[in-house]
Amino acid sequence: MKTPPKAPNLSPSDAPLDERALLAAARAALEHAHSPYSGVRVGAALLDTAGRVHAGCNVENASYGLTICAERNALARAVADGSAEFVAIAIATNRASCLAPCGACRQVLSEFAPNLRVLSVGTGAACESWSLTELLPMAFRPSDLH
């Protein structure tokens, strides 16, 4: 089994971040969301340390447990494109208020970027921002396996 890549020692303030552009990419991705059951559309845009943006959207399934969240979709796309170090993720939803990543997404993101900056926006003008460590303070880490 391949060892997960080490997270970079970047804090959100160490890397240039165009929040508006990242949020715009997340909003564009949510237009492709497949959510016929809940109606909750989510788009995510993940910024890697090379400045590339990897987008994903939620893809629901009639068997809800098989639904793919936008955040993990964006991460899988980034890894498939050869990226493994990330600075920030923007999440956009069609709901009035913003949404934070679910627990599974928090855990998966923390494997790659425990210092990740998380931005979230709904259809309203307000945007929320957190560090992934704030959202998942006691993450299970690869080092916990030893």
Write the layout of secondary structure elements.
Elements: H1 19-30, E1 42-48, E2 53-57, H2 70-80, E3 86-93, H3 103-112, E4 117-121, E5 127-131, H4 132-135
Could you walk me through the main structural features you see in this protein, from its secondary elements to its overall organization?
The protein is built from four helices and five strands. With 146 residues, the protein is of the alpha+beta class. It has one domain (12-145): Cytidine Deaminase, domain 2. The longest helix is centred in the N-terminal third of the chain and has 12 residues, at 19-30. It is globular. Mean pLDDT is 89; it is low at 1-15.
Number of helices: 4
- Name given to the CATH homologous superfamily: Cytidine Deaminase, domain 2
What string gives the helices and strands in order?
HEEHEHEEH
Strand order of the largest sheet: 2-1-3-4-5
Strand proportion, as a percent range, falls in: 15-25%
Envelope shape: globular
Radius of gyration: 14 Å
Number of strands: 5
User: Tell me about the biggest sheet?
Assistant: 5 strands, mixed
How many separate structural domains? Answer: 1
Distance from first to last alpha carbon? 15 Å
pLDDT under 50 segments (min length 5)?
1-15
The first-level CATH class name: Alpha Beta
Looking at the overall shape, the CATH architecture is 3-Layer(aba) Sandwich
CATH topology label: Cytidine Deaminase, domain 2
Summarize the amount of helix as a percent range: 25-40%
Structural class: alpha+beta
Mean pLDDT: 89
